[in-house]
Amino acid sequence: MPRIIHFEINAEKPEKIIEFYKNAFGWTIEKWDGPMEYWLVMTGKGEGIDGGIAKAEGEERIINTIEVDDLYAYIQKVEEFGGTIVRQKSAIPGIGWLAYFIDPEGNLHGMMQSDPKAK
To answer: pLDDT digits over 32-88, tens only?
Structure first.
């Protein structure tokens, strides 16, 4: 079955958003040595996906969901580093806890903490 294997975040000011994701989630972000302005994003070891950050060329925006182990702690980090929570923690019954935030460049993302007991 097809699955998401890469994400791309488009930003008018990539340098600003790079610092946000490094500080809020501890991601490693490196400038790509290719023919376009692009940064490679490594979200960690093990299962999951990596992605990239590109200079926005229009209105293209995406929503990614980021798995976290402590949703409350990451809500605090998002706010501390300039993000805005737009949907507080809510249960996805039998799956986990979900919150949505907008990063400093206006991109909407979700954060999910797995918890099969969520109601």
So the answer is: 998 889 999 999 998 889 999 998 887 767 778 999 999 999 999 999 999 999 999
Question: From CA 35, how far away is CA 38, in angstroms rounded?
Answer: 9
Domain count, the chain: 1
Which is nearest to 67 in space by CA: 21, 22, 112? 112
User: Where residue 44 sits, what CATH number does that domain have?
Assistant: 3.10.180.10
Cα separation of 32 and 38, whole Å?
6
| 112 φ/ψ angles, rounded to the nearest 5 degrees | -125, 130
For residue 119, is it within any domain?
no
Print the domain residue range for 47: 6-114
